[in-house]
From TrEMBL, chain A:
PANTHER family: NA(+)/H(+) ANTIPORTER SUBUNIT, NA(+)_H(+) ANTIPORTER SUBUNIT A. The keyword tRNA-binding does not apply. The keyword Oxidoreductase does not apply. This is Multisubunit potassium/proton antiporter, PhaA subunit /multisubunit potassium/proton antiporter, PhaB subunit. Residues 130-402 form the NADH:quinone oxidoreductase/Mrp antiporter transmembrane domain. Residues 822-944 form the Na+/H+ antiporter MnhB subunit-related protein domain. Residues 67-114 form the NADH-Ubiquinone oxidoreductase (complex I) chain 5 N-terminal domain. The chain crosses the membrane at residues 31-51, 81-103, 123-154, 166-189, 246-268, 274-295, 362-389, 417-440, 461-483, 503-525, 578-594, 610-628, 635-655, 661-682, 702-723, 762-780, 818-841, 847-867, 888-908, 928-951. It is found in: Cell membrane; Membrane. It is a multi-pass membrane protein. Residues 1-21 form the signal peptide.
From TrEMBL, chain B:
This is NADH-quinone oxidoreductase subunit N. It is found in: Cell membrane; Endomembrane system; Membrane. It is a multi-pass membrane protein. The gene is nuoN. Its EC number is 7.1.1.-. It comes from Nitrosomonas eutropha. Belongs to the complex I subunit 2 family. Keywords: Cell membrane, Membrane, NAD, Quinone, Translocase, Transmembrane, Transmembrane helix, Transport, Ubiquinone.
Length: 972, 481
């Protein structure tokens, strides 16, 4: 298989294994371990197999087109540095799997564990060999997610849940920042391809976006590598199972941050911003965490802080921007991974066999587990930087680097001392780890009787410790070539000369090392007794926990601010919502005129008839009055609305549109009457609203008034300007005027349009009208009036009381002759109204009128009967079958339309002629007349149907009252 | 008067749907109580038929008909296919829910289909009146659907609010359109562009019209500051209806913005770009911040929708094929996620229990690991975590905006996306790390199980292999604009 496909296989293998592992049964601990072991060892073998081409300086690439349009390819790229990390990911991955087989108890749901672990390995491998920035960010986020799932593996444990959540929020957030930074980086260099970006160092450093890019990328890297001030999640993540800590929190995931910094070192480093930001974060982590580590009582807590501190060391080295420092950083990444992973595993064994990780309880374990103790001792010595171990070599390089010149500030002189102090601290906590746990008196009250772990559980530690020793003693021939491959791939032509020899003669770094060793040991001696019983955490600043600050800021951000925002900007009440919407619309409407000189052209007001102005004044006053009364006096509002409508009608007459005026007038009447009838069934209006008169209410109303006036005024102004100034587009009016008579056979253009030119539309409209009427009828049939509107109206109550008090009056005598005079008038008027309707209908084609107007007129005639007389009285005498009217009307209209088919014309083609009728004279008889008749019938039917539906409510309310009173009588 | 029959071909799906709506209504009338599912199957069949027809008439050509009032092009056909798919998913997800709540009635299906018809008209409109017709057909159906559960006071209140505010927004839109007409003398969308190009129109009037049109649009999209209706309606409506309102209409709204702003007023892009920037930033900020404070998951998802709308708008701000296609991709991704999220809320609900509190998700992993996993995928996707589709959707719009030179906007958007990630993660925490308050098993039918699994898988697979969908969006935009 060629190396390109092997790269792909490296990524796919763990993910495939993860899917497979998830499907295995819950108790398949051995199968799971075998599966995971095989996958990690195969991956390791692949990486090893690739070494010859890598060492030859080749960069292996595998590019799969992913999204060609947006420069996003699935690019895998392995160079020496990536190779070194791949060895860590797969090799330590294998050791951790082996270890986990024995660490996890049979009760744990292992499929989930191994599945997540393998997926994590895949994601980590992905970060390492991504050749595309976006791909890298994707894998980066994946590691955060799987780390979250792994930390929270024992989710019944509160600490595990909190730790998982915190790590996800911190690293996930960092990841998104990183993504933003990388996208910007891609924007600067015009490509997301890593090679392309790495070749554009100067462009990036000189770009105006350099600082934002740097800050965003550093946020990503520092959160991942748990650097100060984002370090607090790592100690909390120690609730994870120990194999997870060994793998994620020492060897791989936390290294992703420094990996990325090293990866981008050639293009980002070397500026003052880089040194200051990274150096400060690194130095603070190095020093503070080493100090905190001394005072931890939890074994894993100690290791976690030590990890932060060592990562701080790497970060500091990277911040220097000198090639030699970068070499030291890369070397230390490797060394730290080896000794820290073995220490975590050792801590896990202690926890597993002794049942606790509390250093106040543990002591004298040497006699129970001598081999493990020895291994742990060697590893701690490496951590402390004792000569002949790998930790010593890279620490030595670090010390010598701190002596150099960096920014020329006070930092330069402080650095060596700080470094030595941190070294001393690390010696102290290393000694503490060993001395407390393995030496001293026999332990008392341990949960379990400690003993050596199973043989194979110790193997990974043995292997790693051996590596520490070999590298420490003969670095040049063991790690030298591999390190060199990694270094040259990062630094390329800037690769400095460096030597990995153990002995460089007596020089300043060696003196610093010795000072640190001795100082550390002395410090431990001084603190020994205090530490044996002290609380967890460093004295003095125990209260100052990043965790608490984090939680508190989270609550503020996530709850208080959010609540405040919702309270301020969100409202669930319709009124303020409407106010806001209209207010914003007003502002938006004014926006285009900001800064410009609004050229409203209002000259054409001259020549206005004063009478017309007065008319409109009345109309406007009516409309305002209606709005004012709408809430408190519905009847008045309705009547005022009628006034406004009337003014509109007169306006139509004024502008010589009598047909429109007639129609408008009729429509006004019919709607007003219908609303009047419906008014009866609205819930009672509020007579007294307590807070209606307070100052706040008045201000609010004033505010609403101002808004309404300015919106209305603004709209009027704009509409007026446009109507008077804009060139009117050519309309279709001319077409109709020209052809109404010649082709439609009528001189009332509106009517001709309705029944002829736009007959099809009218046909649709009357159908809709019919449906609406039926719907209103159906809805009202089920209508139950509100309880407070079933009561007898006030007038009737007074009248009934009056009747009751006078013995000579029968109950209901007054009601009997109620509205007698109007009723008689209406009855007398009925025939005349019918005649008027016929008149309207017949003249419709040439003069104002038409089927619609006639229909409405007829309907008004019926309405008046219902209004003036009793519903039952009317229905006893008049059989109206509105549904039949509707049906007949529709049918007639449709038949007229279809009639034209007989003559081979399209639907609704009309033909017109004149007919001489005795007495009446010559009338126009277009086929449209039949169509118009259909319209008439339908309009009458629809209006009557709605009217009857409303009218019957009053009959039913009588019935409801009767039932109500019957009930109360029964109860009595 | 002579009169030529228009070419009906581009409108075949609409005509078929209208015919089938009548069939569904009649069938429901005669089917009786026992055969209520008939309407359900008929509706699904109708959608399948529509899809078949749309697929059959699909072509990359732009076809105008009805005197240029109606258009069929690649974008409209693609969006219509997505709409059918979404509506079908809504119906399947809702079946159990509505039958338990007595909503399994003809009205539900006929209103859903009418709304679908409205959406189809919206995406195929090439005339302002047609566009408005589509919007109103959709909106009126939605108002009625929200009020469908007549005994529920909350639902009725939501419907009233929705109606009042919606009517106001329609007023804005019409007012804006009338200004455009006043300025150009045409209602044809394609002629609007011409008249701007020729410089015959009064720029000031145009911009006033534009402002009101944009206000109307942002109401339909529920962008801040015209977002107030969304949380109330999402919360008040029965979940099945919320699912419908939250999903398919967003596809139509996308088409609507494309037609009106891009196709019609593309020449004024510099004028509307600024307005959209404001809307987008405000939506992302308010949506993400306020979502955190919610205890009701439907309300939370409403705010989440508002914030997603902000991201979609970013695509429009970018201007250009890449921007529009990334916005389209985002909308489709959003619809997928919304379907899944509300689908799961409905699966958790029972008779008399709505499962609309965020705390109802506690311990879901123990009750149904598969559902919890699906919800995990959806939440990660909404938060924009790779490799889910939501990540790619965000990335695509960010890239487009970056190309347009709005670096600060990208930075703001990323920060707000970050804040947004928080409340999605809270649900995951509840599902995986908290003990369930209710241990009753969750029952659902196999068809729903298949649907939710497909939905979840689509979210992952389309995130890993987005090129198919991205290509589809790009070609739809390229062939239509």
């Amino acid at each position: 298989m060629n190396s390109e496909n092997l790269l792909l296989l490296l990524i796919l293998l763990p993910f495939a294994g993860s899917a497979l592992a998830a499907l295995l049964p819950a108790n398949a601990r051995n199968t799971e371990a075998w599966l995971s072991g095989c996958i990690t060892i195969t991956a390791f073998a692949i990486v090893v197999y690739l070494y010859p081409s890598i060492s030859a300086g080749e960069i292996l690439r595998n590019e799969i087109e992913w999204l060609p349009g947006s420069d996003l390819n699935f690019t895998l790229r392995m160079d020496g540095f990536a190779w070194m990390f791949s060895i860590l990911v797969t090799g330590i991955g294998f050791l951790v799997v082996l270890y986990a087989r024995y660490y996890m108890s049979p009760e744990d749901p292992v499929p989930r564990f191994f599945s997540f672990l393998l997926a994590f390995a895949g994601a980590m491998q992905g970060i390492v060999i991504s050749g595309n920035l976006i791909l890298l960010a994707i894998f980066w986020e994946l590691t955060s997610i799987f780390s979250f799932l792994l930390i929270g593996y024992w989710h019944h444990n509160t600490a595990a849940r909190d730790g998982a959540r915190m790590s996800l929020i911190v690293t996930g957030t960092g990841g998104l920042c990183l993504l933003a930074g990388l996208v910007l980086l891609g924007y600067i260099t015009d490509s997301y391809d890593l090679d392309h970006v790495l070749a554009a160092g100067n462009t990036i450093r000189e770009h105006e976006l350099y600082v934002p890019v740097l800050v965003l990328i550093l946020l990503g890297a520092l959160t991942k590598s748990a650097q100060f001030p984002f370090h607090f999640w790592l100690p909390n993540a120690m609730a994870a199972p120990t194999p997870v800590s060994a793998y994620l929190h020492s060897a791989t995931m936390v290294k992703a941050g420094v990996f990325l910094l090293t990866r981008l070192w050639p293009v980002l480093s070397g500026t003052d911003e880089w040194f200051l930001l990274l150096g400060l974060a690194g130095m603070s982590s190095l020093l503070l965490s080493a100090y905190f580590a001394i005072f931890q009582q939890d074994l894993k807590g100690l290791l976690a802080y030590s990890t932060i501190s060592h990562l701080g060391l790497i970060t500091t080295l990277l911040s220097f921007g000198s090639p030699l420092a970068a070499v030291a950083a890369i070397f230390h990444m490797l060394n730290h991974a080896t000794f820290k992973a073995s220490l975590f595993m050792a801590a896990g064994i202690i926890d597993h066999e002794a049942g606790t990780r509390d250093m106040r309880k543990l002591s004298g374990l040497f006699s129970f587990m001598p081999i493990t103790a020895t291994l742990a001792m060697v590893a701690s010595a490496a951590m402390a930087g004792v000569p002949l171990l790998n930790g010593f070599l890279s620490k030595e390089m670090f010390f010598s680097e701190t002596l150099g010149q960096h920014s020329g500030s006070v930092l330069d002189s402080v650095l060596p001392y700080a470094a030595t102090l941190a070294g001393a601290f690390s010696v102290t906590y290393s000694i503490r780890f060993i001395h407390t746990v393995f030496f001293g008196p026999k332990p008392l009250g341990l949960p379990r009787e400690p003993h050596e772990p199973p043989h194979w559980m110790r193997r990974p530690i043995e292997f790693l410790v051996l590596a520490c020793l070999i590298i420490g003693i003969v670095p040049g021939i063991t790690i030298g070539p591999y390190l060199h491959t990694a270094v040259t791939s990062v630094l390329r032509e800037y690769t400095p000369l460096y030597s990995l020899a153990v002995w460089h003669g007596i020089n300043t770094p060696l003196i610093m090392s010795m000072t640190a060793l001795i100082g550390g040991a002395l410090l431990y001696l001084m603190l020994q007794n205090y530490l044996a019983q002290s609380e967890d955490g460093p004295p003095g600043i125990r209260q100052l926990k990043g965790q608490r600050i984090f939680e508190r800021s989270l609550v503020t951000l996530s709850w208080r601010w959010a609540r405040w925002m919702e309270d301020t900007f969100g409202t669930q009440r319709l009124q303020p919502q409407l106010f806001l919407v209209i207010f914003i619309a007003l502002i938006a409407g004014c926006w285009p005129f900001l800064g410009t000189d609004p050229a409203f052209n209002l000259e054409s007001t001259t020549g206005m008839d004063p009478a017309f102005a007065v008319l409109w004044g009345i109309g406007i006053a009516c409309a305002l009055g209606a709005a004012y009364q709408a809430k408190y006096h519905r009847l008045a509002a309705l009547i005022l609305m009628g006034g406004a409508g009337l003014v509109t009608c007169i306006t139509f007459v004024w502008f010589s549109a009598p047909d429109l005026a007639v129609t408008q007038l009729l429509v006004e009447i019919v709607t007003t009457v219908l609303i009047l009838l419906g008014l009866r069934w609205l819930p009672k209006r509020m007579e007294q609203i307590d807070d209606a008169t307070t100052l706040i209410a008045r201000t609010r109303r004033l505010r609403d008034f101002v808004l309404a006036v300015s919106c209305g005024g603004g709209m009027t102004l704009i509409a007026y300007t446009i109507m008077t100034n804009a060139e009117l587009p050519e309309t279709i009016a001319g077409f109709f005027l020209e052809r109404a008579y010649s082709e439609g056979g009528g001189s009332n253009v509106v009517n001709v349009i309705l029944v002829d030119f736009r007959g099809f539309d009218t046909f649709g409209e009357i159908t809709v009208l019919g449906i609406v009427a039926l719907t209103v009828y159906a809805l009202l049939r089920r209508f139950r009036p509100a309880p407070d509107s079933i009561e007898i109206p006030e007038q009737q109550r007074i009248q009934n009381d009056f009747d009751d008090r006078h013995p000579n009056r029968k109950v209901g005598e007054t009601v009997h002759d109620y509205l007698m005079v109007p009723a008689v008038l209406m009855q007398w008027m009925f025939p005349f109204i019918i005649l008027l309707a016929v008149y309207f209908f017949l003249r419709g084609h040439d003069l104002p009128g038409g089927g619609f107007a006639a229909g409405i007129t007829l309907a008004i005639g019926l309405l008046l009967q219902y209004l003036a007389s009793d519903t039952r009285w009317v229905e006893d005498r008049l059989r109206i079958l509105p549904v039949r009217w509707i049906g007949l009307g529709l049918l007639l209209a449709a038949l007229t339309g279809m009639g034209s088919w007989l003559f081979g014309f399209p639907f609704l083609t009309s033909h017109s002629t004149y007919l001489e009728i005795p007495l009446i004279g010559k009338i126009p008889v277009a086929t449209a007349l039949f169509f118009d008749l259909g319209v008439l019938l339908l309009v009458v039917g629809a209006t009557a149907l709605m009217l009857i539906a409303i009218a019957h409510q009053s009959i039913r309310s009588h019935r409801a009252r009767a039932i109500e009173s019957a009930k109360t009588q029964e109860d009595d | 008067m002579d009169f030529l029959l228009p070419d009906f071909t581009p409108a075949y799906p609409e005509i078929f749907l209208l015919f089938m709506i009548c069939v569904v209504m009649l069938a429901d009338l005669f089917a009786g109580e026992k055969n209520r599912l008939l309407s359900f199957y008929l509706s699904l069949l109708t959608l399948a038929g529509c899809a078949f027809i749309t697929y059959g008439i699909y072509s990359t050509e732009v076809r105008y008909t009805f005197s240029g009032m109606f258009v069929g092009d690649a974008m409209s056909d693609t969006l219509k296919l997505m709409i059918y798919l979404t509506v079908a998913a809504v119906l399947i997800y809702s079946r159990a829910y509505i039958s338990l709540r007595g909503l399994l009635k003809g009205e539900f299906f006929s209103l859903t289909l009418f709304a679908t018809l409205g959406m189809m008209v919206m995406v195929s409109a090439s005339h302002l009146i047609t566009l408005y017709l589509g919007i109103e057909l959709l909106s009126l159906s939605l108002y009625a659907m929200v009020a469908l559960q007549r005994e529920s006071a909350v639902a009725t209140e939501a419907a009233i609010k929705f109606f009042v505010l919606g009517a106001l927004a329609s007023g804005f839109l019409l007012y804006g359109m009338s200004m455009l007409y006043g300025a150009t003398g045409t209602l044809h969308i394609s002629e609007l562009t011409k008249s701007i190009q020729q410089g015959t129109a009064d720029h000031d009037i145009f911009v006033v019209g534009l402002v009101f049109v944009v206000a109307g649009i942002s109401f339909k999209l529920s962008a801040v500051p015209f977002h107030m209706w969304a949380p109330d309606v999402y919360e008040g409506a029965p979940t099945a209806i919320t699912l419908f309102i939250g999903s398919a209409p967003k596809l139509a709204a996308f088409g609507f913005v494309m037609r009106l702003l891009v196709e019609g007023l593309g020449e004024l892009a510099t004028d509307w770009q600024g307005m959209l920037v404001l809307l987008s930033v405000a939506s992302m900020a308010v949506g993400n911040f306020v979502a955190i404070a919610q205890l009701n998951i439907k309300r939370m998802l409403a705010y989440s929708t508002i914030s997603h709308v902000g991201f979609v708008l970013l695509g429009f701000i970018a201007i250009g094929e890449n921007g529009y296609s990334s916005a389209m991709f985002y909308v489709i991704a959003y619809v997928l996620m919304t379907l899944g999220a509300f689908g799961i809320i409905m699966l958790l609900s029972r008779e008399g229990f709505e499962a609309d509190k965020i705390s109802d998700f506690k311990g879901l992993n123990q009750r149904s690991p598969w559902l919890a996993f699906m919800m995990l995928l959806i939440m990660f996707s909404m938060a924009g975590v790779p490799p889910m589709i939501g990540f790619y959707a965000k990335l695509a719009v960010f890239q487009a905006v970056l190309e347009a030179g709005y670096v600060w906007l990208v930075v703001v958007a990323v920060v707000l996306a970050l804040i947004g990630a928080f409340y999605y993660l809270r649900i995951i925490k509840f599902m995986y790390f908290d003990a369930p308050e209710d241990t009753r098993p969750i029952l659902f039918k196999p068809d729903v199980r298949i649907l939710i699994s497909t939905n979840g898988l689509a979210i992952v697979l389309l995130g890993i292999f987005p090129q198919a969908l991205m290509g589809l969006s790009l070609s739809a935009i390229q062939h239509s604009m």
